[in-house]
Design goal:
Rossmann fold, 6-stranded mixed beta sheet
């Protein structure tokens, strides 16, 4: 290497301009020929812009031949460069020059296929719960999904290491990191388990029942109930030799005597003994063994899946994006002649955004740069925030420490007042290595800094949320004619428009909440949102397509009829299907006409026909947000075309054979399950007028006139269960990847054990938080608005890592009057101190909105008047009735009472359910009496009493003339809104003349008549339902009180006297 220039370029420092000027000067001086430039960027847009700038500068020099020669230069992305080298030197490397590049979704499908068909991983996935994998109710993610996501993450990390990632020693490195981090285990597993078992047995022997019944508060009842359940589970588990470390952890926190809920004498001593034995979990050798086994299985399983994936690619003759870099790096390392040939064709190597390289990319680019005649490496470690994609900024930091750097020191983006504020924060965030940037723009006449101080914490249950106050402030800004900005291109003042504003949030969930608040005020929004697959128009198109190729698919017919343009009521559709065997609607009849030719019609054409004949495109205009619906439908058509264009071998390798409509839908459902594939398309294009909401990560490399930085209270703490790359040192950058190892931070049941691993990750996470904060604060050109959250009030270490804490504790920032103070520097700013209540702009009346023609429509074109709303009440919730209470109400004892006392049924609802279930069995199938105790979790003595009640109830009703019993009779009723609900009546006794309704109730009764009256509205609703269904009168109603064995009866007016229409279900009896 004859000349190396490393240029740290801060935010807005003009790095692209610097690269252009440097290259142009080299060409002018004759040191570099234009066709021998090798320049690498990380996006196609950046590569195109750089090529255009170089060409423009040479044209400005009247050097047309040099400008034309730039077309032959290596100016591309890193992946494009890798592929070009693989093609040009294919024969030297022994590979085919005709390998097809597969798309990322094809790559993910192939990897998933390799995982699913891997025997070792299949065995591992059979016991996911024991390994800590759980499903999520909020996202519908299963334990299998969680495991697959973890495994895909390990595969992605290993692939960033190139061939080193396949080294079998990786599992050994992971094991060593776990054993080192855990520390020396204490004790033998069998001895520790025996000690805990002895303590648990002693406690349960002394206190065989839960203390919940005698607890003085609801909190205490819940705690004692959960403690008792955990103790019983532990007793059984330990006796069988099993292990459950989460259960051990529960036993470490048993509730002891407290004010208001004292425990019996001796309980606290036994509980303390259990907790003392369970505390051995912190250094127990068992969790260590399990963590090592789990981590090794993940690494070795990932490597096995990678091997299978590589085999599949070779058989198909394809490569993926990672191969472009990995294979090219391998050629440069193994074939010095190839590297020499490339260097003979290159006069200089330029690399942009060098801080975003992962280990194998660094190895590839550094192999070129260190051998080049001259090299220019541009990057900024302060903006190295792409670690979640595998980038490793430690490599670039090591490079800047080993070689002399020439940092850029000017900023061409931001208002000087914003840049002064950032420069004041810089040394606090990054130390003495921070290079201050001198702003080159003139100060504007508007406010440059603004703080919105929140009164409520983000999780407050009442009052205004942060997004409400931000939306309210932006509404006032974009509707104020006095607010102007400097146009980026014309440099002239103009009114602020929604597209000039960006909200930067730490996560996508934050983005969604701010988008909802803006939309509530009628502000146009641009945000990447998920949910395309579940979009109403997409689901309707899927079901319509299924029906078109199979008219016998009744499920598709029902969904098309009820979800589609016709909006057939579900009851009508089901009724037609039951009555006629088919549903006749215009849409279904038109779709059925496509069936004859559907098998011979290409899917993309068939999708177009389905959309046309079903009227889905016109239907978009009658749905909420018609523009978005049309965009969703257009993407569905585009996906059909992409399916047809996909290579057959790739589809089959992914498990999808053929090109039928059903195969297409299966392929599409798999695809949208991949990360980032369920995003809804922007209906108005990238340049639409709207406030843009993006994450801090996604804001990198972009800028806006007005930027709002939100979510400074979001925690960026290290997380357990993560793998990371480790390097023993960075002295030899030429071979640094060959020394890479893996480490793992397990998620143990004992938080102290987990903390031992996370403590070592805090410095790296804090550094990432500083970089994210820097990126977010440097995106604004004219105005920077900071949402300032409440303090988190944490004082005990480890303190949470948040941007607010970095600013407050690390930078000493203070908000005083109308200025921000950082150390001794003061910065004028507009201060808004929010109240606790939601802003008035959200009240509805007098709400300020942007004019309709200034924003994209978000409501259906077709509007309908909303009628008066009526309450919809089910019989069990009825509290009033016009039917008069029976005049004669009597109570008679018929059997002994039953009160369940078992500890297995802690809640009153559980006890009531057990009584109902037992009576059902004993009334319907008395021969199954021997199974009732185990099935209902009640004692044998209680079963005997309930059997006596069932016999007495049957005899009493027979004496009253009701010889036929319908037990737990289901009846479908119509609600006030036209919907239907199935109710279950405990017991309907039938005579030749009418019915008696019997409802079972538990609980002690002081006044039977008064309590009967409180249940009368519910019973009256049952009477109406039975009489409507059966066409025969209900003559009597009764409540059977199970805890006293008494029957309260009331006579009602008789109605019609016809034969019963009720059908006794299988569980009924005569």
């Amino acid at each position: 290497m004859t000349e190396l220039s490393i240029v740290p370029a801060g935010a807005g420092a003009g790095k692209t301009h610097h690269i252009q000027e440097t290259l142009t000067q080299w060409v002018r001086d004759g040191r570099v020929r234009p066709e021998k430039i090798l320049a690498v960027t990380f996006t196609e847009a950046a590569a195109g812009e750089l090529r255009q700038r170089i060409r423009g500068a040479l044209i400005a020099d009247s050097n047309l031949s040099a400008a034309l020669a730039v077309e032959r230069a290596y100016v591309s992305t890193i992946h494009g460069l890798g592929r070009r080298l693989l093609i040009e030197h294919a024969f030297a490397s022994g590979s085919s020059p005709q390998q097809r590049l597969i798309a990322e979704d094809e790559q993910d499908l192939l990897i998933r296929r390799s995982i699913e068909e891997n025997p070792a991983l299949s065995e591992l996935s059979r016991n996911l719960a024991a390994l800590g994998y759980q499903g999520s109710f909020s996202s519908d993610e299963t334990a299998e999904d969680s495991f697959r996501k973890k495994l895909l993450g390990v595969i992605a990390l290993l692939r960033t290491l190139g061939p080193r990632g396949s080294d079998p020693a990786m599992a050994d490195f992971v094991e060593a990191s776990i054993r080192t981090g855990y520390g020396a285990p204490i004790g033998k597993p069998e001895t520790l388990a025996a000690a805990l078992q002895k303590a648990v047995d002693a406690l349960l022997q002394a206190f065989p029942r839960s203390l919940a019944d005698d607890a003085g508060s609801a909190t205490a009842k819940t705690a004692f109930r959960e403690n008792f359940r955990a103790l019983k589970q532990a007793q059984q588990l330990l006796a069988s030799g099993g292990t459950d470390w989460r259960l051990w952890q529960k036993l470490r926190g048993l509730r002891l005597s407290m004010r208001g809920s004292p425990t019996p004498d001796g309980y606290d001593d036994h509980a303390a003994a259990v907790m003392l034995a369970a505390d051995n979990l912190v250094f127990h050798p068992g969790p260590l063994k399990d963590a090592v086994s789990h981590a090794r299985a993940l690494v070795e399983g990932a490597q096995s899946a990678m091997t299978d994936y590589e085999t599949r690619k070779r058989e198909l003759g394809v490569i993926d994006f990672s191969d472009m870099v990995t294979n090219a790096a391998r050629i440069l390392d193994e074939k010095p002649a190839v590297l020499g040939a490339i260097m003979d064709e290159v006069d200089c190597v330029i690399v942009d955004e060098f801080q975003d390289t992962n280990p194998i990319q660094f190895t590839f680019l550094w192999a070129l740069a260190r051998k080049a005649k001259r090299a220019l490496i541009v990057g900024d470690t302060k903006q190295a925030i792409m670690g979640f994609q595998g980038a490793d900024p430690r490599l670039t930091v090591a490079l800047t420490q080993q070689f002399e750097t020439s940092p850029l020191d000017r900023n061409w983006r931001s208002d000087p007042r914003i840049m002064d504020f950032v420069n004041a924060l810089g040394p606090c965030l990054f130390g003495e290595d921070y290079t201050a940037l001198a702003a080159q723009n003139a100060s504007g006449h508007e406010t440059a800094l603004e703080v919105i101080e929140l009164a409520n914490k983000r999780g407050a249950r009442s009052g205004g949320k942060p997004q409400h106050f931000i939306a309210d402030r932006l509404l006032s800004l974009v509707t104020d004619d006095r607010v102007t900005i400097v146009d980026r291109h014309s440099k002239a003042l103009r009114d602020l428009e929604p597209r000039d504003v960006a909200i930067l949030c730490p996560t996508h969930s934050h983005c969604a909440s701010y988008a909802a608040a803006l939309r509530a005020l009628g502000l146009p929004v641009r945000v990447a949102e998920g949910g395309w697959w579940q979009s109403k128009i997409v689901q309707a198109a899927c079901f319509a397509l299924r029906f078109a190729v199979d008219p016998a698919d009744n499920h598709a017919a029902i969904c098309t009829a009820t979800l589609g343009p016709g909006a057939t009521p579900l009851g009508d559709a089901l009724g037609a299907l039951a009555r006629d065997g088919r549903i006749e609607t215009p849409e279904l009849m038109a779709l059925q006409g496509l069936w004859a030719d559907s098998l011979a019609t290409p899917v993309d054409r068939l999708v177009h026909q389905v959309i046309q004949v079903a009227g889905l495109r016109d239907w978009c205009d009658r749905l909420d947000d018609p523009a978005q619906m049309r965009a969703d439908l257009l993407r569905f058509e585009a996906e059909a075309a992409a399916f047809m264009d996909a290579h057959r071998d790739m589809r089959e390798a992914s498990g999808f054979y053929g090109q039928s409509a059903n195969v297409f839908l299966g392929w599409l459902e798999n695809k949208v399950g991949l990360k980032g594939e369920d995003l809804r398309p922007n209906p108005a294009g990238a340049e639409a007028d709207g406030i843009e909401i993006v994450t801090w990560h996604a804001s990198k490399g972009r800028e806006w006139p007005v930027v709002v930085v939100c979510g400074l209270d979001h925690k960026l703490d290290p997380r357990a269960g993560t793998f990371s790359t480790k390097f023993p040192g960075f002295d030899d950058l030429d071979h640094v990847i060959e020394q890479a190892t893996l480490a793992y931070a397990p998620d143990f049941a004992a938080p102290e054990a987990t903390a031992r691993f996370l403590n070592g990750l805090y410095p790296e996470c804090e550094e990432t938080a500083r970089r994210l904060l820097y990126v977010a604060l440097t995106r604004a050109r004219n105005r920077l608005i900071i949402e300032w959250p409440q303090d988190d009030d944490k004082v005990e270490p480890p303190l949470p890592i948040t941007a607010r804490r970095l600013l407050n504790d690390g930078c000493g920032i203070k908000l005083q009057g109308n200025q921000i103070t950082v150390g001794s520097a003061h910065f004028p700013s507009r201060m808004t101190i929010c109240g606790k209540e939601i802003p008035a702009s959200f009240d509805g009346e007098g709400r300020v909105r942007i004019e309709r023609n200034d924003r994209e429509p978000r409501f259906a074109i077709e509007r309908r008047a909303v009628g008066q709303l009526a309450p919809v009440i089910s019989p069990s919730q009825t509290i009033a009735t016009t039917r008069p209470l029976p005049l004669q109400i009597e109570t008679r004892p018929i059997s002994a009472g039953v009160r369940l006392t078992g500890s297995d049924l802690a809640l009153a609802t559980d006890k009531g359910t057990a009584v109902h279930e037992a009576l059902r069995i004993l009334l319907c199938r008395p021969d199954l009496r021997h199974r009732v105790g185990q099935h209902c979790r009640i004692a044998e003595a209680e079963v005997e009493l309930l059997a006596q009640q069932a016999q007495a109830l049957r005899q009493t009703l027979n004496e009253l003339g009701y010889s036929r019993l319908h037990v737990e009779q289901p009846i479908e009723i119509e609600l006030a809104d036209g919907g239907r609900q199935s109710i279950i009546v405990d017991l309907i006794a039938e005579s030749t003349n009418g019915f008696m309704i019997v409802d079972h109730k538990s609980g002690l009764i002081a006044d039977h008549t008064a309590r009967f009256a409180t249940y009368w509205p519910q019973l009256a609703a049952y009477i109406a339902a039975v009489e409507f269904k059966a066409g025969k009168a209900v003559q009597s109603v009764a409540v059977f009180w199970t805890e006293t064995g008494e029957l309260t009866l009331g006579q009602v007016l008789c109605g019609t006297n016809e034969l019963s229409d009720l059908t006794t279900p299988d569980r009924g009896m005569r």
